[in-house]
């Protein structure tokens, strides 16, 4: 049934990478030059993040970002059918031993992630580790695409949990002595009455969810920031930057401050690999 429901995406997914990148090039031209999808937002964000860069440098980063953004979409669709052996050839993990050592000691791990690199490919990490792996996500209002992304993300044994149920589920695992690796995206803008805290991020006072820090503390997790370096199209190297060796020893603000600081360092190195299309600072007083 799933093959019929998502038939167009399965057709795309079985295409070889070189053909997908031809389609991606066309999509980039349409997105950047014709439709101008969120170009004002992207340029505004880049100017805020890099105030000392020239207009020429900003445009150069923006174009590279849009090329990567289009590539990433088709690479993500490829998750529907890609073979594990091909993932292992295209997705290199630089310092996996950092994780395996903690897991052998029965310590929980939190991957405090961001919209950087191809974050959807992080769902393939269970191919390299034998561990109970969970990711918290905010359900999309469009159920078709919501179900499509769950299908892609769970293909390699990642358990997708709606954010509003995540705290209870992960605490249940902790109380039952189930060692787990849990993935939480930390760079989304908090909405409504969500728990939030502010810290400096690219020269702006920026709001962050406090939920990830609370979960890490309650589950006494080792926290890592995973980030990706793009070697070439369809080939990435994954790194793990330690944020906290024991979350129970720090307050939530300290965890968020450290996360924001390390994420900013990564984005400074690879600005074109960050998601610049969302209005990250809209609720913190910035007018778009």
Task: Give a description of the structure.
InterPro entries: LipA_acyltrans. The chain crosses the membrane at residues 6-35. Keywords: Acyltransferase, Cell inner membrane, Cell membrane, Membrane, Transferase, Transmembrane, Transmembrane helix. This is KDO2-lipid IV(A) lauroyltransferase. The longest helix is centred in the N-terminal third of the chain and has 23 residues, at 55-77. The strands form two sheets. Strands 1-9-8-2-5-3-4 form a seven-stranded mixed beta sheet. The chain has one domain. Helix content is 44%, strand content 20%. It is α/β, with parallel strands linked by helices and 288 residues long.
The amount of helix comes to 40-55%
Indicate the structural class. alpha/beta
Describe the largest sheet: 7 strands, mixed
Total beta strand runs: 9
Strand line-up in the sheet with most strands: 1-9-8-2-5-3-4
What share of residues are in beta strands?
Answer: 15-25%
Uncertain segments: none
Pfam family, one: Lip_A_acyltrans
Transmembrane segments: 6-35
Main location: membrane
Keywords: Acyltransferase, Cell inner membrane, Cell membrane, Membrane, Transferase, Transmembrane, Transmembrane helix
Give the tags.
single chain, 288 residues, alpha/beta, seven-stranded mixed β-sheet, two-stranded antiparallel ribbon, 44% helix, globular
Would you spell out the secondary-structure blueprint of this structure?
Blueprint (H helix, E strand, L loop, with lengths): L1 H4 L1 H7 L3 H18 L4 H11 L5 H23 L6 H7 E3 L3 H8 L4 E5 L18 E6 L5 H11 L4 E5 H13 L4 E6 L10 E6 L2 E6 L1 H8 L3 E11 L2 E10 L7 H18 L19
Parallel strand pairs: 1-9, 2-5, 2-8, 3-4, 3-5
Antiparallel strand pairs: 6-7, 8-9
Helix pairs in contact: 3-5, 4-5
């Amino acid at each position: 049934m799933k093959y019929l429901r998502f038939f167009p995406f399965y057709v795309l997914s079985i295409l070889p990478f070189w053909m997908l990148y031809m389609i991606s090039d066309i999509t980039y031209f349409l997105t950047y030059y014709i439709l101008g999808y969120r170009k004002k937002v992207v340029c505004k964000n880049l100017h805020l993040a890099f105030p000392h860069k020239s207009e020429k440098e900003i445009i150069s980063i923006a174009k590279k970002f849009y090329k990567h953004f289009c590539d990433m979409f088709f690479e993500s669709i490829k998750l529907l059918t890609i073979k594990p052996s091909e993932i292992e050839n295209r997705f290199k993990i630089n310092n996996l031993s950092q994780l395996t050592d903690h897991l052998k000691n029965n310590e929980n791990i939190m991957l405090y992630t961001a919209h950087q690199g191809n974050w959807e490919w992080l769902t393939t990490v269970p191919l390299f580790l034998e561990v109970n792996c969970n990711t918290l996500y905010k359900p999309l209002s469009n159920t078709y695409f919501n179900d499509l992304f769950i299908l892609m993300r769970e293909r390699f044994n990642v358990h997708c949990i709606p954010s509003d149920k995540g705290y209870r589920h992960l605490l249940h695992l902790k109380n039952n002595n189930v060692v787990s690796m849990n993935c939480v995206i930390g760079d989304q803008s908090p909405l409504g009455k969500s728990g939030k805290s502010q810290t400096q991020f690219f020269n702006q006072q920026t709001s962050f969810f406090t939920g990830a820090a609370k979960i890490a503390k309650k589950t006494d997790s080792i926290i890592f920031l995973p980030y990706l370096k793009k070697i070439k199209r369809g080939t990435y190297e994954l790194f793990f930057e330690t944020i906290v060796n024991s979350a129970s020893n720090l307050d939530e603000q300290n965890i968020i401050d450290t996360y924001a600081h390390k994420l900013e360092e990564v984005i400074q190195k690879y600005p074109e690999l960050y998601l610049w299309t969302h209005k990250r600072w809209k609720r913190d007083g910035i007018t778009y």
